[in-house]
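pls ignore typos typing on phone
magnesium ion + seq
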Amino acid sequence: MAREHHPVSRKLISPAALKVLYTLNEAGYSAYLVGGGVRDILAGIEPKDFDVATDAHPEQVRELFRSCRLVGRRFVIAHVRFGREVIEVTTFRGALTDSHERDETGRILSDNVYGSDICADALRRDFTVNGLYYDIADYSLLDYVGGIQDMQARAIRLIGDAELRYREDPVRMLRAVRIANKLQFHMTPETREPIPRLASLLCEVPPARLFDEVLKLLQCRDAVANFQGLVETGLLAELFPGLHACIDEPGVRPLIDAALANTARRIANDQPVTPAFLFATLLWPVVSRLAARHEAEEDMPPAVALGTAADRVLGEQVERVAIPKRFSAPAREIWMMQGRFAFRRGKRAERLMGHPRFRAAYDFYCLRAQAGEADPEIAQWWTEAQSSQDAPPPAPADAAGPPRRRRRRRRRSGGGNGAGDSEQ
Ligand code: ATP
Ligand code: MG
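k done
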C-alpha cells in the first residue's frame, strides 16, 4: 500500500526509530518498522515502543550503532539504545522447518535460523495486525497476512493455524488477551476458542518470561480488563493457581479490581507503580486464608501464621511466575505490617509510621478497607495521622489493638494516648 493510502507518517515515529531505520537502509540493508509501532499508529494510539525488522544479521546491526547490545540466546536480537529509548532490531526469521527443535507439546525450543525473506518473517509473527511492515525506503505499508483488513475489522487473529501457533509459543495466549484489550479489538473465534483448552501449556514456559508478561498485563492501563480476560479464558488458573482457587469467594474480586484500577490510574497519571504492590495484592487472598487456617488448626499466633503462610505461598508461586526477591521481600513486609494498623497508641504506632515500608503497607490497608475486609475507620485514622503529623488524631478507646490471645503477658509500652507522641 503506497504512502498516500495509509496514515503511517514519519511524524508519528520516534526520532530514534527513524535513525535506526535510515542507518540500516543507507548501509544497504532493508529496514522496516513492524509490530506494535505500526499497529498502534494505525489504531490511532501512541506506540509504547518501536520494533524494527531487517535482513541485516545481529552482528551487522551492531557494527552500525555504538549503543547496540545483542540479547537473547535462542534468537539473537539487537537492542539499540538512545537515552532511555531502546529500539528492538530483529533479523528476519526464516520459515519454520523440521530443523527447529520442539518439545513434546509442540513448543519451539531453538529458533536461530535467519532468513532474508520478509514474507517468511511475516508468517512467523503472532497476529495479523502485528505483521504489518512500514518500509523506510519508500514509506509504503506491506501486508502479507491480511493485517490491514483485520485492523479495519478490529480483529485479533493468529496467523496460520491457531492451535499450532499457541503450541509453538503458549505466551501468545497472554498476548492475545492483552493486545485485544489494548486496542479494544475482539479475538476471532478461531483465535479465542483454543485458549481455555491450551491454557495449561503455560506451565512449560519459563517462569521468568511469565513474570514479564504478567507485568505487561497487570501493570498497565488495561489491567482490570486484562485480569477479567485471564479469568474468563482460564489463563489465571495457570499463572496464579492459588488465587484462582478463591477468586469467587466474597471480597476477593473487589480487592483485586480496586488494586488494579488504582494501578491503572497511577500509570495514567505518570505516578510510579511497583510490582511488589501488585504481587502483594494478587497473593494476599491466598496468604490470608492460609494464615487463618494455620491459626485455627495449628493454634499458631497470628504473626507466626502469617509469616508461615507467606513463605509457603511465595515459594509455590515462584515456580509459576518468577517474582524476583526485590519484589517478593517487600510484598511480604506489606503483609506482615497489616496487623499492626489496629494499634494506634504509643510507641507501636510511632514505630509503624517510621517503618520504611509504611506508605505501601498503609496504601494496602486502605485498599483492604475499600474492599470491605479491613476497618475503614482505622484507615481513616491513619490517613489523618499522616496529614497532621504534629498532632495526630486522638486514638479511640480500643486503639490498643485487638486483645492478645496468648498467655504471654506484656506491659503495654507508653500508655495513655501514645499516638500523640509521634515525632514523624
Ligand atoms: P507492545 O510493544 O505494544 O507490547 P508488540 O506487539 O510490539 O506490542 P513486542 O513484544 O514489542 O509486542 O513484539 C514486537 C513484535 O514481534 C510483535 O508485534 C510481533 O510481530 C512479534 N512478536 C512478539 N512476540 C511474539 C511471539 N510470541 N510470537 C510471534 N511473534 C511475536
Ligand atoms: Mg513493541
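The longest helix spans residues 275-298. The longest strand covers residues 85-91. more later
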